[in-house]
Design brief:
There is one protein chain. By secondary structure, the chain is of the alpha/beta class. The chain has a single domain, classed as 3-Layer(aba) Sandwich (Rossmann fold), CATH 3.40.50. The chain is built from eight helices and six strands, in the order βααβαβαβαβαβαα. The chain has a six-stranded parallel β-sheet with strand order 2-1-3-4-5-6, with helices on both faces. Helix 4 packs across helix 5. The longest helix has 15 residues. The chain starts with 7 loop residues before the first strand and ends in a 17-residue tail after the last helix.
């Protein structure tokens, strides 16, 4: 997919729930054409190949939710080991059953900036939080590795709200993507400025 800004490439990666709820797909679809490329959490090979095919000077930005966050981290690690360091990795309430500190440390070394967003809202009986619990939430583990660790008072399913949440008045994950990727005028309002839960 051609990029409207040849200096940057944004990949949005949806988790398993995106197949039915399309939370990440909705953000991708709200962006102007050519602003992002969408991948499923099952497309790790396609994501790696697409990123490697980008021009060498292009900034790589990976934003993944749920299992898509875990996949984005895995691909960022692969890219780094192949000599293509990711400029920005945003993992939004990522899940994986087995997670080691060695893996997190290796991911940290392969990205220039890492933002991790943890969902803390919705309660234990929220369906999406239950599904995430089965998948194995990363919880607090990335806190020692990510450049920015955000705890957002939204449920696991609320991708746009999680990505747009400004904890303690600081920049949201979306704000950081915007600074890296877009001019302020081109950022859609789909995920901006959440400061309190719905």
């Amino acid at each position: 997919m051609p990029s409207s800004n040849p200096a940057h490439w944004l990949a949005l990666i949806g988790g398993m729930g995106d197949a039915t709820h399309a939370a990440v797909r909705a953000v991708h679809d709200a962006l102007p054409p050519g602003r992002s490329q969408y991948f499923s959490h099952l497309d790790d090979g396609k994501l790696f190949e697409a990123a490697m095919a980008r021009p060498g000077g292009e900034t790589l930005i990976l934003v993944g939710h749920s299992w898509g966050g875990e996949m984005a981290a895995r691909v960022a690690l692969r890219l780094g080991r192949a000599g293509r360091k990711v400029a920005l990795l945003v993992t939004v309430d990522p899940v994986k059953r087995v997670l080691s500190h060695g893996f997190l440390g290796a991911v940290r070394e392969c990205v220039q900036c890492w933002v991790n967003i943890r969902a803390t809202g919705g309660g234990r009986r929220d369906h999406s939080n239950l599904v995430a619990a089965i998948g194995g939430p990363w919880g607090l583990r990335p806190k020692a590795y990510a450049d920015r660790f955000i705890e957002a008072p939204f449920a696991h399913r609320d991708f746009a709200a999680l990505l747009g949440y400004r904890q303690d008045g600081l920049e949201s994950g979306w704000d950081i993507v915007g600074k890296t990727r877009f001019s302020a005028a081109n950022i859609p309002n789909v995920a901006s400025g959440y400061t309190t839960p719905k």
